[in-house]
Give the backbone structure.
Amino acid sequence: MAKEFFTKPFLAFLEEGKEKYLPHLSIDCVVFAFQDGKLKVLLSQFGKNGLAVLAGGFIGKEEDIDEAANRILEERTGLTDIFLQQFQAFGLAERRFELEILPELQKFGIPEDSAEWMMKRFITIGYYALVRAEETNPVPGPLTQTLIWSDIDDLPIMAMDHANIIDSARKLLAKEIGYQPVAQRLMPKNFTIPELQTLYETILGRSIDRGNFRKKVLKASILEKLDKQKTGGAHRAPQLYRFHPDHSDESFHGQMKMGF
Amino acid sequence: MAKEFFTKPFLAFLEEGKEKYLPHLSIDCVVFAFQDGKLKVLLSQFGKNGLAVLAGGFIGKEEDIDEAANRILEERTGLTDIFLQQFQAFGLAERRFELEILPELQKFGIPEDSAEWMMKRFITIGYYALVRAEETNPVPGPLTQTLIWSDIDDLPIMAMDHANIIDSARKLLAKEIGYQPVAQRLMPKNFTIPELQTLYETILGRSIDRGNFRKKVLKASILEKLDKQKTGGAHRAPQLYRFHPDHSDESFHGQMKMGF
DNA sequence: AAAGAAAGAGTATTTTTTACTCAAACTAAA
DNA sequence: TTTAGTTTGAGTAAAAAATACTCTTTCTTT
């Protein structure tokens, strides 16, 4: 990785940016996934062990902010129809890339004035997204060197206030999981109840009684039992389920308030 | 009211704006109060029966967005230390004052180019504020002709998407009232339990059992009984309470989840 | 074939919510 | 001064939800 990354597309991006995008405004997406029993976020990193940033971008002059967020996410993950929700704007006066990113660019010989517009103060609108890791195909963009799924509890050093943005998103997630779609979007198509429980436990940050979780989740009748069982496990084969495809989304918020 | 309103201060404001404020960005505050058993919002109206807008303003180039929101609110209400919280950015591509406000300005002979920067596309960051109506002293600003407390269920015609912004804020309020500070900020210093109940009922939009409400609110031990009783009422004199001054705010979120 | 381990199922207790009833206290009308 | 009307304050009983367990089943590994 290195010099050849910051070539034409990136320079072109910088030159065009001033014309195409609204000044002082950006979008940053906290893309969550659940993998190996851990909560992950999608990050792009400037080189191995380098500074990391969220999946971000800018807002076209004639583009809705939600449109922009979807475009940015599609560019990075290849996914359309993502669960994507705005959650907070971050707007401290001293929020600017300058200090951290400018040296990086200079290392690669980018002329300073090409990136001038990017060095201004930026107010960023934070979105959070829920994806299934196994369906995602991360694609580096013009500004992104390496894309990684990082354990949310073991983040690399983040640029600016990005660690703070992730933290806010995570707290929101814990609130929102009581209102459904979260689990649908993060779990694989088929899963066992104990697997679902670990999702809840990692998001809520505490353990839940096994029996009670099962009881509650079944009573909510949001799950559909499959014929198959999960084989290969070390012990008794657990039953596989999937979310009932009927009430695909909004239909029954609050049916499973998850007040454990 | 009329011509003399759009004079020096307003023109000066327009001229300066381009220099002082970030382009394409505004702040709009939904200021809630509870008065006569009704939920009210602070609006400024262009003339009697005219178009109404939220208490809004712009973000200084070196100003945090929270700072800006506080400044704007202080300018209008004279209050400092307001409960003020960002809740959502509104950013449709066609969000612009132009169509609705430009004609108003032209009526008053404002040169079109003075207001040019204001006619661009704006992304607005929505805040909601909670105030005690009786402590507020609304002050018209450079852009605001008349300030009124409007019943949220009987709004005048609102400019742009401002009705939508109010609606979002109200929905949020209903969610947040389960997490405390809301009632503290909206109720007068002293109040009776039935009065508190009507606040909950109007915010939640449904009726609550009298006895159960009282039981729950008392068990949360957030109230302090006063010696006085509320006199003058048509019937049995209800006991006066105030919020326990100790845990003034954050201290015990969630103690009163209000799951009616 | 037996041991270990997790899943599935069930029970019992406590807490919270919901739906009421009844007495007390005050005003206004008789 | 008494009485009717109305709202507050207080309490009870039943239903639902949350919590804390135990026991059985089923699978893998030894």
About this structure: Residues 209, 211-212, 216, 231, 233-237, 259-260 of chain B lie near DNA strand C (CB under 10 Å from a C1'). The longest strand of chain B covers residues 21-35. Chain B has seven helices and nine strands.
